[in-house]
Design goal:
The structure is a single chain. This protein has three helices and nine strands, in the order E-E-E-E-H-E-E-E-E-E-H-H. With about 150 residues, it is an alpha+beta fold. It has one domain. The strands form two sheets. Strands 3-4-9-8-5-7-6 form a seven-stranded mixed sheet. The protein has a two-stranded antiparallel ribbon with strand order 1-2. Strand 6 and strand 7 form a beta hairpin. Helix 2 packs across helix 3. The chain is globular and about 35 Å long. The N terminus is likely disordered.
């Protein structure tokens, strides 16, 4: 069972805040790398509320995440800065060059990860299939191709 993450609130560093752990799966490093390197299943479509738990995982294991990029229109609100635990992440929104079903994370040291974003309202079985497919090193499908393969229930 995953316990909630306790952290210092970004809005008020003196106050502790909790949020559930990120629903995230990463594929093992492969060569050549796939179009996505895993999947994230946020609980809501509120990126500002959801991002902290995702960034906590990456900050701890892959280095400080400083930027994200996503396709314009993928999220209802498109803030340019997002406070997370201990720092602020800059967001960029693109109309081309980024798959509409992914989010791109950038960390210090010029590393990047493209994650399939499983729609928050997905049925649990569909979400599990999408996350498994995105983490499969033998599959080299884009986020859009993974969503199409799952069909309209994804």
């Amino acid at each position: 069972m995953n316990a909630p993450i306790v952290h210092r609130s970004s809005a008020d560093p003196g106050r502790l805040a909790t949020y559930p752990p990120a629903r995230l799966v990463l594929r093992p490093p492969t060569f050549p790398p796939g179009p996505v390197c895993g999947a994230w299943w946020p609980r809501t479509d509120d990126l500002a509320a959801e991002l902290a738990s995702l960034i906590d995982v990456f900050d701890a294991s892959h280095g400080l995440v400083t930027r994200i990029a996503s396709h314009h229109g993928s999220w209802p609100h498109e803030p340019h800065t997002l406070p997370v635990t201990g720092h602020t992440v800059t967001a960029s929104w693109y109309t081309s060059g980024i798959d509409p079903h992914t989010i791109r994370l950038f960390s210090c040291g010029a590393r990047r990860w493209d994650l399939l974003v499983v729609p928050p309202r997905s049925e649990a079985g569909a979400a599990a299939r999408l996350m498994t497919a995105a983490a499969d090193p033998a599959r080299h499908l884009t986020g859009t191709a993974l969503m199409a393969a799952e069909g309209p229930s994804g």
